[in-house]
Amino acid sequence: MTGHDGHLGAVYDAKAPDEVAAAYDAWAEGYDAEMARAGYRHPTIGLALLARHLPRGAAPILDAGVGTGLAGAWYGILGWPEVWGVDISEGMLGVAARKGTYARLSRAVLGEPLEFADGQFAAVISTGVFTTGHVGAEALPELIRITAPGGVIVLTVKGTLWDGGFEAALMAQPVDLLELTEPYVSMPGDAATTPSRAVALRVR
Questions:
Q1: What CA–CA distance (Å, rounded) separates 66 from 121?
Q2: What is d(CA 25, CA 100) in angstroms, rounded to the nearest whole number?
Q3: Most buried residue, 2, 27, 177, 178, by CB count within 10 Å?
Q4: What are the tens digits of pLDDT across the range 90-109?
Q5: Rounded to whole angstroms, how far apart are CA atoms 162 and 137?
Q6: Contact criterion met (CB below 8 Å) for 87 and 65
Q7: Is the pTM of this model over 0.85?
Q8: Secondary structure in 3-state letters for 52-120
């Protein structure tokens, strides 16, 4: 057990992709309100890093693990006109679709082959995905493959995952480190939350 209660505990305790999907399906309608109460920071921090390293107008961008589309409205405000999203949960994708801010949405399991072409995206952002019970370094090669050379990848990574081999696996990939944040707590309103980092990379 992770020490988290309710829906958050269920998704962290899930042991396989179908369990993760089912847990998020059950959470989808209440997700935004619950994360707002927890003071959820990952989308904001990820967007800040992306804005620092990706020019306005770059397109398309992939939001990998888009969830309910918490960041959706911000992309256009920040000057990126075309954002696609993928997620493991059909329920979460349904909520994201209602917001009308994504050019395309589809189901995908990170860590498995993705349907996109090599170098298809100017940037990939994935926040809140590389964490307990979700996705590990096995997803990196595909995210890098679908990002254009010179493109930007922004990830948030749970600290235990980062220190447990993710950093070494990441640095073995054809990417250059642009920025790595200090550890921060992604949900200050949840006492059981442990620190994470956010990282910005450029694909070679």
A1: 15
A2: 19
A3: 27
A4: 999 999 999 999 999 999 99
A5: 9
A6: yes
A7: yes
A8: HHCCCCCCCEEEECCCCCCCHHHHHHCCCCCEEEEECCHHHHHHHHHHCCCCEEEECCECECCCCCCCC
